[in-house]
Amino acid sequence: ADWQADMVCEMFDILDQCQTVLKAARIIKVLPGGFLQLGPEGPDIVTDSIHVHKSSPILFPVGYAKEHSITLQGPKGEYDEALDWESFLRRRHYKVAPYHFFHEARESDVPYKVGMHLEAIDQNGKFLRPSTVKAIKGRLLLIGFDGWEEKYDHLYDYRSDQLFPCGWGEMVGHALQPPVPSTPSDSE
């Protein structure tokens, strides 16, 4: 079996400003070469759709967010408890993409540990910043940018090409942005 239109899964929406949630998603169309057109479930699914390869690290099985304590955004921008996959699927008759369609990693596969320092490209995709692994959520890492508020945290696949060891920027001549200094009110 392979991907089919109207299969559902969870996705990391690379176009969204909030980079710490997963979204309920549906396959709109299966394209040649292993590509899929999918979008976050909701009234703007076609407008908000993207094309990705079926092996993309932004795709997750139904239930991944719940299993790893990640907020799941449902069809109308509702979060967590508002989206019950079972009743959602009963009302819409969509198929769940089989679990074996997705890359899964055991914690032992992930070469990072909570508290580990590294350098990461930020959400704007252009600045290299000192960062810290705040949590490991399956194959996703919750990364905090040193000195920045929690609202700027970002989820990365552990295989991301946007994560680097400390010293990488200096070694290759890429500027490392300094951490945002904490203010006296931050430490009180």
Summarize the structure.
11% of the residues lie in helices and 32% in strands. By secondary structure, it is mainly beta. The strands form 2 sheets. Strands 1, 2, 3, 4, 5, 6 and 7 form a 7-stranded mixed sheet that branches.
Indicate the topology.
Blueprint (H helix, E strand, L loop, with lengths): L6 E5 L9 E11 L3 E6 L9 E4 L5 E2 L3 H4 L3 E3 L11 H8 L2 E2 L20 E5 L6 E10 L2 E6 L8 E4 L5 E2 L3 H5 L11 H4 L1
Parallel strand pairs: 1-7, 2-6
Antiparallel strand pairs: 1-2, 1-5, 2-3, 3-4, 8-9, 8-12, 9-10, 10-11
Descriptive overview:
Keywords: Repeat. The mean pLDDT is 89. The strands form 2 sheets. Strands 1, 2, 3, 4, 5, 6 and 7 form a 7-stranded mixed beta sheet that branches. A 5-stranded antiparallel beta sheet has the order 11-10-9-8-12, with no helix packed on it. β2 and β3 form a beta hairpin. It contains 4 helices and 12 strands, in the order βββββαβαββββββαα. The chain is mainly beta. The protein starts with 6 loop residues before the first strand and ends with a helix. The chain has 2 domains: 95 residues, SH3 type barrels, CATH 2.30.30.140; 76 residues, SH3 type barrels (Roll). Helix content is 11%, strand content 32%.
- Briefly, what CATH class of the largest domain? Mainly Beta
For the biggest sheet, the summary is: 7 strands, mixed
* Shape field: elongated
Structural class: mainly beta
Q: What's the number of extended β-strand segments?
A: 12
Quickly count the helices.
4
**How far apart are the termini?**
57 Å
Rounded radius of gyration (Å): 18 Å
CATH topology of the largest domain, anyone? SH3 type barrels
Low-confidence spans: none
Average pLDDT confidence is 89
Q: List the helices and strands in order.
A: EEEEEHEHEEEEEEHH
Work out the strand percent: 25-35%
Total separate domains: 2
Query: Share of helix among residues?
Result: 10-25%
CATH architecture of the largest domain: Roll
InterPro entries: Mbt (IPR004092), PcG_chromatin_remod_factors (IPR050548)
GO molecular function, one term: chromatin binding
Keywords: Repeat
GO biological process, one term: negative regulation of DNA-templated transcription
